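Quick review question:
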């Protein structure tokens, strides 16, 4: 695994967190490859490519910044392909409806195009309780660990 490539992807993820905080849809969209396949929280089950206008509308639905944190980030790089896994927190004040404070497992797949990493696969999910209630487990939080401080 190349430390330089891992560092480049880490920088990209931190820049994305800042772009999310400032609601910069153009910067967020620029990190996606044209052949993106996304399994995201909002319907439909799968999307292909990035819909920048939909991203702008989603960002506009929040009053103020969209903030968060990333735990247990792991990046694996092999040649021009890489993937990351992490637990991501998103906090935002809704313009309508409930405020959001949510932890989600996230997996991103990357491919290097012309010396730049781009996201080709995105999977963000919410676990659900397996007790027959089919309730989303929106109250889950990662357990504090010394290496996360």
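Suggested answer, residue by residue:
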């Amino acid at each position: 695994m190349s430390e330089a490539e891992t560092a480049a992807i880490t920088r990209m993820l931190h820049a994305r967190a800042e772009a999310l905080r400032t609601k910069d849809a153009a910067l967020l969209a620029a990190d996606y490859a044209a052949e993106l396949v996304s399994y995201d929280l909002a319907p439909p089950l799968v999307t292909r490519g990035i819909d920048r206008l939909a991203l702008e509308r989603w960002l506009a639905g929040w009053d103020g910044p969209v903030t968060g944190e990333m735990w247990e980030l792991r990046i694996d790089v092999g040649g021009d392909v890489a993937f990351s896994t992490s637990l991501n927190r998103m906090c935002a004040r809704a313009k309508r409806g409930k405020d959001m404070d949510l932890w989600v497992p996230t997996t991103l797949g990357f491919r290097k195009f012309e010396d730049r990493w781009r996201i080709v696969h995105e999977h963000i999910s919410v676990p659900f309780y397996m007790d027959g209630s089919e309730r989303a487990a929106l109250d889950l939080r990662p357990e504090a660990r010394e290496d996360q401080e």
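Why it works: The two ends are 25 Å apart (CA to CA). The mean pLDDT is 91.
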